[in-house]
Amino acid sequence: MCRLLNILRWAIPCLLYPLCVAPASATQGQPDLIEVVVVGDAGFNGAAARVSAEGGYKHGQLLDVRGAISGIRHELEADISLANLETVVTANNSLGASSKRFSFRTHPNAIRGFLDAGLNAFSLANNHALDYRQAGAADTLRHLKDMQSEGLLAFPGLGTSIQKAAAPHNVDVGQTSIALSSIGIGGLGASMSSGKVGMLKYPADLDRVTTALGNTDADLKILSVHYGREFEPETPMTTRVRFREMVSQEGFTLVAGHHKHVANGVEIVDTASGANGLIFYGLGNFLHLGMQNMGRQDLCHDFGLLGRVVFSRDIDGSVSIVSVRIVPLTDMHIATKPLPPEKAVTRIHVINHLSNQLTDQKAGAQGLSFTPQPDGSGLWCNPEHSRGSCMSTPYAAPAPGSLSSQISQACKRVLVR
């Protein structure tokens, strides 16, 4: 049934937009295409707010998670649908918070609302994982383990030892094996002895996490990284070098970056095996009641990003990227939905601007240029892929001169909280 729904979900839009890629299972009976959705920071409660089984609080108002996510749930169904869970998961209002400006906790029922909407994997290593200290982190692990029987496939990043926190979580999709790992900037940090729950920190423990993921035999290797300077759209060279080395040397299929609250560029990097790895340098916010309304900012800082990647696994086990689709998001602080097409097209040009800065032939890196689609999404098709209808790269027209200048000026700004 899931495979049939997946086929129909692709077939109907492909009748309207010929640049999209129909899965091989729909045309050849071969279930070898894998879809991965990635989004940024998620949680469902305001800073220091009490948790409630009925929903989450925004400025004292109780909101229902199913209503808040209803505007984007049609984009979330995939084999792997990964968000960064930037909150403690607990039903306990008596937990003591750490001494920091913003502390987040979310009731398990809200996370079940995320699952019901289509998310099925969460990265846990970030600067809010330990907001309610060891007890809160232990609650997070306990509740997410319980949700494995409800459709949760993976939740890497926290563990009761260094090895467990670094260990990838493994998922099989048909004949394709997928491994997911998570690392992030780490708030207070945590002891990893005596069975206490903790996480590994970026960048100090990056080698440990990337080695553990690189040593797996998985067909797809996905790394979630919570890092960087908040509100910075452009990607520093130090970050480019570090991420490209992870992809090229360890053979990672996908790196999903977040924490900055704003979207960054997207690039493909050559790996040592001759394949390609994909990097989203910044996905921005997804749905979190504790975040500010980014829609008040300029056109380079006012949206989040949803990425949908189609991979093909060949008979010999090799994996290639078929297409990448991006959806600019708005209202991530209260009820996420895609930006209206007219505004979304402008943000596609923003991503193209940021991605074009990344192209570096010597480093084997190509920034992706996305072609705006009628629904406001952006599409890149791999011109070297022989499957589906992506037989050549669609033409991504440059932004008009006046808009290009506006984008360039806005993207050089780093906002101050």
Characterize the structure shown.
By secondary structure, the protein is an alpha/beta fold. It has a single domain (30-411), classed as Metallo-dependent phosphatases (Purple Acid Phosphatase, chain A, domain 2, 4-Layer Sandwich), CATH 3.60.21.10. It is built from ten helices and 22 strands. The protein has helices spanning 2-16, 24-28, 65-69, 108-117, 133-146, 162-166, 206-214, 237-250, 341-356, 401-411; strands spanning 33-42, 56-58, 61-63, 80-85, 88-89, 105-106, 121-123, 158-159, 169-173, 176-184, 198-199, 220-226, 254-258, 266-270, 276-280, 285-287, 304-313, 319-330, 337-338, 365-367, 371-372, 378-381. Helix 9 packs across helix 10 (401-411). The chain starts with a helix and ends in a 6-residue tail after the last helix.
Strand content: 25-35%
What's the architecture in CATH terms? 4-Layer Sandwich
Structural class: alpha/beta
> CATH superfamily membership, which one?
Metallo-dependent phosphatases
Residue share in helix: 10-25%
Uncertain segments = 1-29
**Secondary structure tally, helices:** 10
| CATH fold label | Purple Acid Phosphatase, chain A, domain 2
CATH class: Alpha Beta
Tell me the distance between the termini. 47 Å
Q: Averaging pLDDT over every residue, what do you get?
A: 90
Q: Count all strands and give the number.
A: 22
Q: Into how many domains do the coordinates divide? A: 1
